[in-house]
Amino acid sequence: MANEYKAEQIKVLKDLEAVKRRPGMYVGSTGPRGLHHLVHEVVDNSIDEVLAGYCNEIKVIIHSDNKVTVSDNGRGIPVDEHPDYKKSALELVMTVLHAGGKFDNKTYRVAGGLHGVGVSVVNALSSYLEATIYRDGKIWRQTYSRGKPTSPVEIVGDIDEGKTGTKITFAPDGEVFESIEFEYDRVARRLRELAFLNAGVSIEIKDERFAREEKFKYEGGIVEFVKHLNKSREVVFPDPIYLQGEKGDVQAEVAIQYNQSFILDIFAFVNDINTQEGGTHLSGFKAALTRAINDYAKRTENKESILMGEDIREGLTAIINIKMPDPQFEGQTKTRLGNSEVRGIIDSIVYEGLTRYFEENPSTAKVILQKTISASRVRLAAQKARELTRKKEALGGGSMPGKLAACSEDDPEKNEIYIVEGDSAGGSAKQGRDRKFQAILPIKGKIINVEKSHLVKVLSNTEIKAIIAAVGTGIKEEFNILRLRYHKVILMSDADVDGAHIRTLLLTFLYRYMPDLIKQGHVYIAQPPLYKVTNKNKECFLYSDAELNRLREKLKDDKIDVQRYKGLGEMNPEQLWKATMDPQTRTSYRVTIEDAIEANELFSMLMGKDVEPRRKFIEEHATEAELDI
Amino acid sequence: MRLQRLTSIEREKVDKDHKDSVKNIEEFKAILASDTKIWGIIKDELKEVKEKYANPRRTKIEEGELEGLEFKPEDLIEKEDVVITITYNGYIKYTPLRAYTRQQRGGKGMSGISLGKGDVAKNLILCNTHSTLLFFTNSGKVHAIKVYEIPQKGRGERGRAIVNFVQLGEDKTAATITIDDIFDSNKFLLMVTKKGMVKKTSLKQFSNLKRTGIIAIKLKEKDELVKVLLSSGEDDLILSTKKGMSIKFSEKDVRPMGRASTGVKGMRLSTDDEVVDAVLVEDEADLFTITTKGYGKRTPLSSYRKIRRGGRGVKNIKLHPERGEVVATKKVKKDDEIIIITQKGKSIRLWAKNIRQTRRITAGCRIIKSDKNDKVIALA
Amino acid sequence: MAIEEKDNLVFLEDEMKKSYLSYAMSVIVSRALPDARDGLKPVQRRILYAMTELGLLPNRPYRKSARVTGEVLGKLHPHGDMAVYDALVRMAQDFSLRHPLIDGQGNFGSVDGDPPAAMRYTEVRLAPLSNELLNDLDKDTVDFIPNFDNSLKEPVVLPARFPNLLINGASGIAVGMTTNIPPHNLAEVTDACIAMINNPGITCDEILQFVKGPDFPTGGIILESENLKKAYEEGRGKITLRGKSSIEREDGRERIIIEEIPYQVNKTTLIEKIADLAHEEKIKGIKTIRDESDRTGIRIVIEVSRVFTSEIILNQLYKHTPLQTTFGIILLAIVNGKPEQLSLAKAIKYYLEHRREVLIRRTRYLLDKEEKKAHILEGLKKALSRID
User: Fold this and answer.
1) Is C24 touching A (CB cutoff 8 A)?
2) Closest CA to B309 of B247, B261, B244, B376
3) A577 touches chain C (CB under 8 A)
4) What is the secondary structure of A266-321 as a DSSP string?
5) Separation in Å, CA of A299 to nearest CA in chain B
6) Residue A454 CA to chain centroid, in angstroms?
7) Residue of A nearest to B165 (CA)
8) Residues of chain B contacting residue A360, judged by C-beta atoms under 8 Å apart
């Protein structure tokens, strides 16, 4: 008998010696975290009683000598002798590792992470500990020092039959912990959290050092928790959505509210442990939330929704509170829930609950939908902006458009680029040019009107891309005149009205996307001839009807042969060179801006979306127009 | 000589040509001198083209059959007989009548709606898609909605919450619903409350119905609206209580009142008794009464003696505790159908003639086998 | 700088205004809008004139469209070949023009939106009615102007013996303005013209006694409303146009038969739209839809499920598909070289003024010719009298 007793004793001592030797393993550290963990551990013992339904009051007192007292009105730790160990159950709980929760298999608390290692650890790390039990009309007490009983379990007084509870006072071991100063806020925060997570329980804290005290009691539980978190934020709807359900042994409750900020606050608790690293319950919740909102959007807005999780979680404050047996904790700090079955359970509870809530509370559902849809719009806009940046960067890079016939000189100052209407004219220009300094870029048909088109669409246009790449400066904010490849950008279109139209489209693009190119005088308009006149084997080019009339008068009766050019393609390469490209003989105009404000208004009016001002302008100036047949 | 002859022929021709020419010249000059002539030619030429080429009109022009060329919803929505189901938790749907199949008396019924947790089917209404639904809340307000505005769902499907269609407000559940195809006739609404009050109001007073609702009856404290009937102004009605009493009186005893009034006493009730239902009397029709436990009876409406309003009435059905209390009554004819719904969302559809017609004071027979924890909650 | 050249300046603002205006006005005046007098756009007029010159009269054999297109391009219309061919094709389509001006041989497209065959396959000649447009062109009835290279002359307008603008209608998008003139019935419009000749002060209401409304080549039904009158009074307004349909009943089954579809509605698109709506259950009760159209005409058959009402389904089709469309009337045409929005009365008035001028010029021409002839005959008479 003595041998057995002794053997037991050795084992227990060995366990608690291990705790003392490596306290970090059991309470996290010997710093403030470990110190405060002692309080949590004792309070957790009381919470077990709360969960079992026998306790609704917990008091924590930080004494002036840094002793701490935790008392509850639970059933009180049993004091009778344990049949196997032949010892008082109280003493076992206080001195045997992991002995605590196992006395009551109805509680859900199971060892996980740093939690639930048992109050015996606290005992081992306390220079003094006194346990007082109120039970069966008696007051029982035992004291300990560094995990060893310093007194037997004895009756120290009588009490009302109905009054029960446990009171534990301990002084952390100054030789183990770096400091034994408790921080009020740290303790209080955790106690408030527990009060939120266990609706209805009253938790008081009193700090005798600074004469501070607070009482936490929340009938609304996690709903009030969410309200508390959102108290200084502008909420989207006043009362948080509360959902709860039970599947098998898993009980879950969720409270959800949205606020106008962009912050996401989701706290997930499993058996009162804050699972900071998330886990299966969190992913189940997120998936269900996204699905429920998207389904609702689809049903009410009647369109395929593209709300992403990130849209849905913007401005979300949520508490997930789960009570379950056997949670598996994983991760760095052992705060990630690993039980895979939980994902599906939470998913179905949240999805079904939310779907029903939305159905029955359309006004709240609507504001949530609006909020998430606007978040989605912002996200899409940002995405578009990023794509645009990428596109612009791609255009800035040195890639050359395939249609460009480049010139051989390397000096931008000497070089010219002809932007030519149509491939047929482009061909003539390529053959007629001086390839040393003249580059040709043929543009097909009427280019896009940039005044009426979105930036993204403009930048996807092949012709526009070719122009940007050939000019080399980049566009808008990225415009850099130093990268200009040709100091003369010459627009050459047919001498008919469609040519004039193409010219206005090109000028609109240059003015809106590379205004400095015009302002600094790099843009020219080539003047192709209107007529070729042949007279006695001599030919000359005329650029206007006035010139033709003058010539007719001069030559009077001589027979002249007049050819009216409708397109650049009508000219031979040699003629094109002589008439429009040879710097010695050509006529071209440099484009300058007279009045920037007028120019701006003019482009909006002539090229913009609004038809009425354009119509008015045309009517007012109809007589000034040069007509074409 | 030959030449001469030739020229004489020529001369004649030239003379003639010259004469013609001069005539033409005169005519052309005349035309140029006369607008009437010019227009005359233009007309002739137009007529000529018309004669030669015109063909009958191809596009028909119809008098505007549409008001402002816009379709009314009724023009676009199929008029179809439907069953509206409303649940205790305020879900609503309509299902085409053809989705239900007939069963014989005593059948187990089939599922009429899929229900949310703890929800029960409460109301069944036979009407059509063009009907107007009036939601009278127990607090005495009335809201209106067209049937086609509520969702169509299959027989076994769940509906949608009424709050999505009608703004019922916070704590008012719909107490009674009646239907209506014709809005501005000389009809009246007869409202019956739990405490036996009766109020009559012309239907016209409800012509401006909105989804947001208007007051239909001003209720006394703790009273609730239980039934609303659409009447001609000269009908008789029978109020029935849960303890098996019924009273028959003429609605002429009830003078028409405005919307916001309280009404008059319709029936004197014993302690703890309350009015559960009311029907309009019709020749050749019977009163079908059903209890919570599925016992029912069919008794000719003529077997109920007509008295003045405000009396205690007569015994309608003999009740035993195991047979439950009266849940609802319905006026039926031999060829009518009855749909009975239970709390668990089961419904049974049967012919009235399959239920034996009995005297007034009987206990009735078992109509539906209800499960142990199920009970009958409504008739349609 | 290797090359010195004089620096000519042009202000951006001036260049934009000038170029844009000349483009805009050219499109308005000589491309997209019809002339109020003969109802033709330049390209149409050039095609008809070129065909006359080619001798492609109604009683002559057909010729390849490519030849006509080439003739138009080479002599009169220096623009894209497809633009010319498209215009040519439209003038031959009996579903586009109430009275086609060109008699086509081959595939000229269909209401199903099928494209016409290429211009090397199709053949054309003038339709008999075109004679009435071109008649008297050789009698100095209208002005001729030089073509683009001064080598030929072309008429600025055709004599137009019937009011083509209203008969065949027109549609075109210019710059800052569009035109959309529906076709009308020839008998009705000529009657209206005659009525106006008889009573120059005729009111719109009185004209509408003759012209009941547009008359589309594709038939259909116009729902009469105040809008129609307003459109003719102001030259702008919207009318509602429906296809023609009937309901066939056969042993309790119902089917909707569509025999005419609204003007400019693509039949294939219409059927696809109906099928989509039926498929998505936006319109319930449609069992099947079949296109039974053949050479005798359009016939779209919609089988209706037993419990559904055909009338309601038809109403839904009107509401949700192009079986009912809105035709926005804009009576915009070129008058004296400027675009003008015309009331029905004005459109007729301008036409009649044109006819009056044509008639006067024709009479003068004939008078002139006759006087010359008389002069010669007089001479001949004198000569003959001397033989005696």
Assistant:
1) yes
2) B247
3) no
4) EEEEETTEE-TT-BHHHHHHHHHHHHHHHHHHHHHH-S-----HHHHTTTEEEEEE
5) 11
6) 26
7) A362
8) 89-90, 161, 163
| Amino acid of residue A463 | E
Helix (H) or strand (E) holding C387: helix C344-387
End-to-end CA distance of chain B: 124
**What is the distance in angstroms between the Cα of A349 and the nearest Cα belonging to chain B?**
12
Query: Residue A590's closest chain C neighbor by CA?
Result: C9
Q: Does any CB of chain C come closer than 8 Å to the CB of residue A518? A: yes
Q: What is the ipTM for the molecules in this complex? A: 0.93
B161 to chain A, any CB pair closer than 8 A? The answer is: yes
**Three-state SS annotation for A187-234:** HHHHHHHHHHHCCCCEEEEEECCCCEEEEEECCCCHHHHHHHHCCCCC
CB–CB of A359 and B90 under 8 A? no
The answer to whether residue A421 is catalytic is yes
Distance of CA A519 to the CA centre of its chain: 41
- Tokens 């099947």, located at residue: C288
The single residue of A57, A498, A547, A582 carrying the catalytic annotation is: A498
Give the pLDDT confidence of A524-542 residue by residue, as tens digits.
999 888 888 887 777 888 8
DSSP β-bridge partners for residue B202: B188
pLDDT, average across residues A279-299: 91
pTM: 0.70
- DSSP output for A437-458: TEEEEEE-SSPP-TTTS-HHHH
Question: What six digits make up the tokens of A602?
Answer: 């003019």
Query: How many Å apart are CA B377 and CA B294, to the nearest integer?
Result: 9
pLDDT score at A110? 44
The domains of chain A, with CATH numbers, are 17-216 (3.30.565.10), 222-378 (3.30.230.10), 412-529+588-596 (3.40.50.670)
Cα dist from C234 to A267, B23, C39, C194, C345, whole Å: 69, 47, 19, 22, 10
Q: Is the distance from CB of C22 to CB of A628 less than 8 angstroms? A: yes
* pLDDT tens-digit map of B298-346: 999 888 988 998 888 888 888 888 888 898 888 888 888 787 877 776 7
Q: Kindly determine whether residue B116 and residue A362, on different chains, have CB atoms separated by under 8 Å.
A: no
Neighbouring CB atoms inside 10 A of A563's CB total: 17
CA dist., res. C274 & res. C256, Å (int): 12
DSSP 8-state code for residue A90: H
A496 a catalytic residue: yes
Q: For chain A, how far is it from start to end, CA to CA, in angstroms?
A: 125
Q: Residue A454: which residues within 8 A CB-CB, separation 6 or more?
A: none
CA separation for the pair B141, C193 (Å, rounded): 66
Does C350 qualify as catalytic in the annotation?
no
For C253-277, b/e burial (b = at least 16 CB within 10 A) is ebbbebebbbbbbbbeebbebbeeb
A602 touches chain C (CB under 8 A): yes
Catalytic residue among C20, C23, C49, C121: C121
Show the tokens assigned to A308: 């992403």
C-beta neighbour count of A499 within 10 angstroms = 23
**Higher pLDDT residue, A11 or A141?**
A141
C7 burial (CB, 10 Å; 0-12 / 13-18 / 19+) is exposed
Residue A498 with chain C: CB contacts under 8 Å = 23
Both tokens of A273, joined, read 């442990």
CA distance C26 to chain A (A): 5
